[in-house]
Specification:
- This protein is α/β, with parallel strands linked by helices and about 250 residues long.
- The protein has helices spanning about 15-30, 40-50, 65-75, 95-105, 115-130, 230-245; strands at about 10, 35, 55, 85-90, 110, 140-145, 150-155, 160-170, 170-175, 190-195, 200-210, 220.
- Strands 7-8-9-12-11-10 form a six-stranded antiparallel barrel.
- Strand 8 (about 160-170) and strand 9 (about 170-175) form a beta hairpin.
- It is elongated and about 70 Å long.
Amino acid sequence: MADIYGKKVFILNPQSVIREEMLHLLIAAEYEVALLRDTQKALRALSKYPDAILFINIEEGMKESEWEAFIRNIMRNEKTREVRIGILAYNADPVLKKKYLMDIGVRCGFVTLKLGLKESFRIIVKALEANEAKGRRRYVRAICGPQDRAMFNVKYAGEFLTGTILDISSVGMACSFDKPQQLKPGIELDDIQLKLRAVLCRASGKLVGTDKEKEERLLVLFGNNISPRERHKIHQFVYERLQEAIDAL
């Protein structure tokens, strides 16, 4: 049975097409993805998240033989041996592919990027689905702290209300108002302005309830009419928060 929270997806030493195009597709598909840029940072991250999925670009940064040794070390190490590894490469050499899939035994495939962005994305997603990367969680959320300057305002019943975003995903947020409000679940909030650091985003929503443990924590579900552009802003904020948490390691 899939776990509730899913798995973190790391991409080590990503090619430019991964950084500039593939990453956005994976974020929009609600995968909890972060980039790693050196092997030592990767080992620290994998030690903290030993059930993670790791895709590696083996064509830059080190010789291929050194990447092979690095991967074998991850698979042998008691702290990281449960990590599931996939390979990213433009080189479609069948001998190289056979070595990683059959001899070394990586579990998330050998993705040949020269097949094109669409086909490469399909292969990666297929591997992520097979390894239950999302678990039972459908959407990725970011927990917000004071340093994130995540705030909102909304006009309701002729009054201008302001508050703080506590966590957010592309489909909703947990929040608290700056002043206590007597708002009942089910009310429609037609024009919510979100401020995610310096980025402004607009959405409509519905107050669906309060947190069972903290009544001052209100739960808002965004409306389906939120535009792709505004949803992209939220996705980008969520990704940045998750990436910063990994960089802090």
